[in-house]
Task: structure prediction
Amino acid sequence: MTAPAQPTAPDLLYSQDEEDLRSAVRALLADRADAPTVIAATEADTPYDPRLWEALATGIGAAGLLVPERLGGQGASHREAAVVLEELGRSVAPAPYLTSSVVATETLLALAGDGGPADALLGELASGARTAVLAVPFATPPAGPAATLATLDGTVRGIADAAVADVLLVPTAEGLYAVGATAPGAAVEPLVPLDLTRPLATLTLSGATGTPLAPPEAGAAAVRRGLLAGAGLLASEQLGIAEWCLTETVRYTRERHQFNRPVGSFQALKHRMAQLWLEVVSARAAARNAADALATGSPDAPLAVAVAQAYCSGVAVHAAEECVQLHGGIGMTWEHPAHLYLKRAKADSIALGSAGGHREAVAELVELPAP
Result:
């Protein structure tokens, strides 16, 4: 009698290829998305730099990491995409990577393979020629409603990156449709978000027409797959935020002197940064576990994603708060980038489901009573 197969332990380490990808993305962002550049972008009407996106999407090939080679992508996995998001989190660079290259791409991948419109659109997304967003509120969790509209008529609020997208993937009760952002009957109105590096918008459809991508049941499953991947890899962005905040805070407290001593030598601050380091290390394990579970197609992926989001969102917010406070007066200024990280962390904490919602999901998945 054959013994049942034992579950494979998750691989939480980074491969050499992943480290090489990290180096390339970090060098690009250091050159094109340093703190002064990002702050200036938040003050402009167009926060996204097309040249940065072209270099990231086409030059490095990051836009097509999740897309198979037969459809024009790189044929990589969620592990590599997670590395890109870590670096985007470290720089809070304004780029539609999470929304287009992860959520929208993963949604379309659930429908690909028959040579239909989903395949053609995936090729365009992989090349960086076009971007797409899933037209649901950015706060929608993976297990949330798959559609907020009955037909291609109505309003959807709080869609991340809709103002800069070329294509809107609109789930309705009649199925999933691809609607051009500038198509007749489609109006995108920018909102003023807390996080100025990831703009939100309201989509109003009135007599719009779109390309059918999937019937209701298949479309709903595709949407949930896209949201699950987005939530899982958002943890890697939150990890990048927390890592930058910790690194920058340690550096600053070493250089800042008070009473002829580095302020980082004071025991109270040492304890706070040591505690933050422990949280960041734990967040790295949770984020890597989620990325690996998604990459391997593990049946435990929903649980890994829920755990990662339940933990990493709080760590990112705590790290950003400590960064602002331990930088003293300079941390409160517009010129210092600390406020960008705090706003991104706060916005991410309610994106694709809140930490409380993910904790409830964990309780349901492991069959424990909700707290």
